[in-house]
Amino acid sequence: MLNDCNSLTDLWKHVSVLNKKHFSENKLMPILGDGKTSKPKFLFVFINPTARNISSDKNWNGPRFPFVGTKQVWRVFYNAGLFDEKLMIEINNNSTWSVDFTEKVLNFLKNKNFYFTNLVKWTGHDATLPDSEKIRLFLPVLEKELEIVKPEYVVTFGLLPFENLVKQKIKLSDYYDEVMQTKKAGCFEINVGKIKTNVIPCYFPIGRGNPKRAVEILRLLKFL
User: Which residues contact 137 (CB under 8 A, 6 or more apart)?
Assistant: First the structure.
């Protein structure tokens, strides 16, 4: 039961049970959260992983976290001043990631005081957004994850993770206009279990999102 999960190890066992129970036909592995697992300054919440993440392969022997083996999101973080230049050069120059390189990226996240995760811990074959049933199933997992990890700030990419966590609707364009004027990332305080944290909405950084505006908002994090 979720209430009995007092560590990330317990929580990932629960995620495995949920996937086997509800999506037994799906052969892709769920992608877990990783980075600095205790009181990171920033916890970044994406939506759901896809098969483009090479760690979704059941034969993968390295760590599993968002965007392993991909390029675009790391470029956005690099352009925002939040990712290492040498690692970015390696990502741009190589068509795939080794386990050793994945460990290097993970160590960077830990040292940078970052934690990456997803709203939904179920891996799809394409970029189709998760339906309301998957969000209902996995939102309590994310909330428990926040309670365990205890981030100072939560950055949500796209409206799905923001609105489900904060229980409030916003227009990202209005938020963007305001923070570009004030040059300060506005926060929404929430209570999650026994903790309080601050949520910062951001555009999704690839695909249907807005990478340019995501970079501009992410650049404001250095002032927090």
Answer: 18, 22, 120
Distance CA 130, CA 124 (A): 8
* pTM, to two decimals: 0.97
SS3 118: strand
Domain interval for residue 98: 2-223
* Residue whose C-alpha is closest to residue 118's, from 97, 138, 147: 138
CATH number (domain holding residue 74): 3.40.470.10
**Would you say 69 and 52 are in contact if contact means Cβ atoms under 8 Å apart?**
yes
List pLDDT tens digits, range 168-186: 999 999 999 999 999 999 9
The 10s digit of each residue's pLDDT in 85-94 is: 999 999 999 9
Residue with tokens 């950084």: 205
Domain count, the chain: 1
Asked whether 142 and 31 are in contact (CB, 8 A), the reply is no
Q: What tokens were used for 79?
A: 């352009």
